[in-house]
Amino acid sequence: MAPVGLQLYSLREVVEESLERALDMTRAAGYDCVEWYGCPQVTQDPAGARAACEARGLVSYSMHVPEAWLRADALPDTLEALRALGVRYAVLPWSKADSAAACEETAALLAGAKAYLAPHGIEVGYHNHGHEFKALPDGRLPMDVIVRGSGALGEVDTCWALYGGVEPDAYIASLGAQTGPVHFKDINADYRTRSPEAIDVPVGGGILDFERIARTLARAGRLEAGLIVEQEAYAGDVQADIAASCAHIRALLARLGA
């Protein structure tokens, strides 16, 4: 069964007040697991964060890690923290990616982290925003330079991919086995006229065909890597939105028999 998780950045304002309440909301919305971000509760006490997660029947699944954690001199401490957290994936959530040199530097960083962490059962990935799909002067996509150049997994964010100018299912198909967990994030029909901070909506409430994306993942054998919801802005009730996203995903997985 494909894991369905919530990136806790979706509840960042709640996390600031109470991690436990954020985890309660996640479980009540129907999720199996969580993807962490670099909030103090995780960076300062990863074992405690994991325990709070597991006490609610959630799996501590993956983490968006700070870039500094992936530098060679930091990797021993990073491994210790990720082991304490119990995650399977360590994902770099952003890089400048504004030149070939910058992309190649990020690729080298990820390749080094991958080589160090893989023997310990932790896979390294990269999460896109929109700018990684804007071609460099030499014609290459920053996302390709970073992911294919490093051998790391691509955590494709479907909303940001479309915003950047590519069809997310087509890009996932091109990555194939190099696809990691995928961010199921929907996008408003009028996203081109909105600020980047206001383009996303609950899964099923926008224009992306997530059943088609899930079928693409199934063909690549990558549904098992996980489907992660992230919602960065809300027009309605937060709890209702994250629950609606989870319910939409579970319904489409049921149709696929996954």
UniProtKB/TrEMBL annotation:
Xylose isomerase-like TIM barrel domain location: 25-251
Q: What lineage is on file?
A: Bacteria, Bacillati, Bacillota, Clostridia, Eubacteriales
Report the protein name in the record: Sugar phosphate isomerase/epimerase
Q: Which UniProt keywords apply?
A: Isomerase
Q: Which GO terms describe its molecular function?
A: isomerase activity
Pfam families, per database record = AP_endonuc_2 (PF01261)
Where do transmembrane segments lie in this chain?
Answer: none
Q: Which domain of life is it from?
A: Bacteria
